[in-house]
Design a protein that fits this description.
With 343 residues, the chain is of the alpha/beta class. 30% of the residues lie in helices and 25% in strands. Helix 10 links the parallel strand 12 and strand 13. Helix 5 packs across helix 6. The longest helix has 14 residues.
């Protein structure tokens, strides 16, 4: 069996692996599609060490084998990859802080004992069965491969403290920003202003419910006009670039909030006195919880969260390198690229 891995700066290797077999608490999944994540793109561009277990971590598929101690799954079940429920044994769990379970964090970062030796850019994968969530019957395999980033955005918006009627700004109209926009609307925002340099992505933001979609150069004036000079109630940073962290705070009103979702791969310069004078409320969101996957799928199935317009292309393992290079170029016309490892 062959799997694709990012092994260095602008380098993708297709390596041969033995066909996976399930351990007692694991299952083997035949992968249908795997999405390309922003962290995959950052790893490809930077050449920094990239954990092979998370090189392709947005996938859907069908269970083909289960371990002897697996009880909640059967062969033939359609599944998406998630994180397990809180373990109940680690220090945070024992302190009643199950939302920050150490075992869940280890799984999310590919450092748990059952972490696979490659990610989802492969036709098959063996993972801990507790990570698998049955796919909602109302969504397709292509939609299911986008459940993971949808859940990232859901988790962030739930943590952010948005209130009914808030004027919100979403920085970035990539897959995470476009999904965050939809969750912010679902949470009752009064207006959502999306900031994005790419014209096609700005148009898609309007299609998906943005009140206004504008450029980084014009957003300051628009936010001032829409808020009568106060600033946005809440700003969601979904770009993942160091320079956009301060700009998110600049757009917020005094007493407003900033939610950090995008993962910058280097340190950011900020202006602390602006944060202090504005008394900014900061929330940050990494990954998600187990139960949020079913919440996300439910709202995708009933049409309140739409991912189909974001899926712009599908490639195979051999096309992964070119897709990563294109997505990281800054001029790509693609939004969400899925990899079909079986073609």
């Amino acid at each position: 069996m062959h799997a694709a891995l990012i092994t260095g700066k602008e380098t993708v290797d297709i390596k041969e692996f033995d066909d996976p077999t399930p351990g007692p608490h694991s299952a083997v999944v035949e992968i249908a599609f795997c999405g390309i994540c922003g962290t995959d793109i950052h790893a490809f561009q930077s050449g920094k060490d990239y954990n092979p277990a998370i090189c392709g971590h947005e996938w859907s598929g069908t269970v083909s084998a289960i371990g002897a101690d697996v009880r909640k799954l059967s062969e033939g079940d359609r599944v998406v990859v998630a994180v397990p429920p809180p373990c109940g044994r680690c220090r945070p769990c024992r302190a009643g802080q199950t939302a920050t379970c150490s075992a869940v964090l280890a799984v999310a970062t590919g450092r748990d004992p059952l972490a696979p030796i490659h990610g989802g850019f492969a036709p098959r994968i063996a993972v801990g069965a507790s990570r698998l969530v049955k796919t909602d019957a109302g969504i397709t395999d292509e939609q299911a491969a986008q459940v993971e980033p949808v859940t990232v955005a859901l988790h962030a918006v739930r943590k952010s403290g948005i209130r009914l009627g808030d004027i919100a700004v979403v920085q970035g109209a990539g897959p995470i920003g476009l999904t965050t926009l939809q969750w912010v609307k679902a949470a009752g925002a009064g207006k959502v202003i999306v900031v994005e340099p790419n014209e096609a992505r700005r148009a898609l933001a309007i299609e998906l419910g943005a009140t206004i979609s504008t450029t980084p150069e014009e957003v300051g004036d628009i936010v001032a006009e829409e808020t009568k000079g106060l600033g946005a109630d809440i700003v969601y940073e979904c770009v993942g670039r160091p320079q956009t962290i301060q700009s998110a705070v600049d757009l917020a009103r005094r007493g407003g909030s900033m939610c950090l979702i995008g993962l910058a791969d280097s340190n950011a310069e900020i202006t602390p006195h602006v944060w202090l004078v504005k008394e900014i409320n900061l929330s940050a969101a990494l990954a998600y919880s187990h139960e949020e996957f079913e919440m996300a799928m439910g709202m995708m199935a009933d049409g309140r969260i739409r991912v189909e317009p974001m899926h712009s292309a599908t490639t195979n393992l051999e096309g992964l390198r070119d897709a990563l290079a294109d997505l990281g170029s800054g001029t790509s016309e693609e939004i969400k690229v899925l990899v079909n490892p079986n073609t």
